[in-house]
Amino acid sequence: MKNHRVIFLVSVFLCFLPALVAIAADKPSLAGDNKDKKAVVKQAPVAKAISIEEAGNKVLNTVNKNFVPQKNAILSGKPAEESGLYKVELSIENNTQSFYLTKDGEKLIFPNGSVDIAKFEEDSQKRQDVQKEEIPKTERPSVELFVMSLCPYGVKAEKEILPVISSFGDKVDFKLKFIVNVRGNTINEVDSLHGNEEAREDVRQAAIMKYYPDKFGSYIEKIDKNSCLILCGSVKLQDYWKKAAKELRIDVKKVESFAYGQEGMDLLRQNEADAKKYQVTGSPTLVINGITSRAIYEGPEAVKKVICSAFKDPVEICQK
Fold first, then answer.
1. Residue 273 maps to which CATH number?
2. DSSP states of 22-81 as a string?
3. pLDDT tens digits for 286-301?
4. Domain encompassing residue 32
5. Looking at the structure, do residues 217 and 298 belong to the same domain, yes or no?
6. DSSP strand pairing (291-293 vs 285-288)
C-alpha cells in the first residue's frame, strides 16, 4: 500500500505536466526494460553531461519545487548511472520513488512520462501570470472547466465549482470539458493522462452531466472517495462506476449508450479541439469568455468573483 501511495502522489502532480497532457505515443516509460531508457537517451543526445552529484541535487530541487507541496522529498541513497541516465531515488513521505535524469540535466523522467525541466518551469511561470489580460464582459458569460476525470485536482475543481455555477442558475453558460487525445473513431482509440480507462470515465462523466446534472456532484464524490485505490489498481473502475451509478439511480445503459457511441466521440473530439484552442496544459484549467483564469486554484469565492467580473450588467448574486 505504501508503494501505491507513492504512485498516487506522483500521479497527482502529473495532472499539471504539459508534456504529459499530449499523451504522446512515444512517451518514455520506466515501467518497461532498459530498451525504453535507451530510447530516451537516443531521443535526447547529450551535449555536455552534468556530474552525478549535480544530477541528484537537480532532481531533488525540481521535485520539491514543483511537485511536492510540503517540499519534504529527500535523497534516498546515492544517485547512480543506469542505461545512459542518472537514476535518483527520493524518499517522499517515507516512501521511495525512482526518478531518472538525462545526463545533460535537461529531461526529468517519471514513471508515467517525462518533462523538459526548463520548458516546464517556463510554462509554470506563464500559468502564474495568467489573467493579466482582462476578461471581456458579456451578457451571459461562458464558463469552461477542463479536467481529467481521475486527476485529484480536477475532481476537487469539479466539486468546488458546481455549487458556484448552481448559484448563477442559467445566467452563465457552463461546460465541463475533458483533456483527451482522440486517435481514431471508437472509444478504444481515445486516451487521457491515465490511459484509455480514464478517457472512458471522462465521457461517462459527460453523459452523467448531460442526463443527470443533479446527481453529478454525488457521483464524483463517490469517485473521489476511492480515487487512490482506483489509480493504484486496487479497485477496478469499470466495475466501481456502475456500482456508484446504480446507488444514485443512474441508468448505466443510458450512460454507456451515449459515452461509447457517436455522440460521445463527437463530444470528445470537440473537447480536444477546444483544449488546443485555449492551449490547455493541465487539469484543472478554467476559461471564462475565452480567457484562462487562475481563480480555479484559489477557491470557490475567487471563482464566483471572476465570473461576476465577466457580466456586462451586474447580476443580483454578485451584489451579495
1. 3.40.30.10
2. T--TT---SSS-HHHHHHHHHHS--SSPPPHHHHHHHHHHHHHHHT-TT---EE-S--EE
3. 999 999 998 998 889 9
4. 2-123
5. yes
6. antiparallel
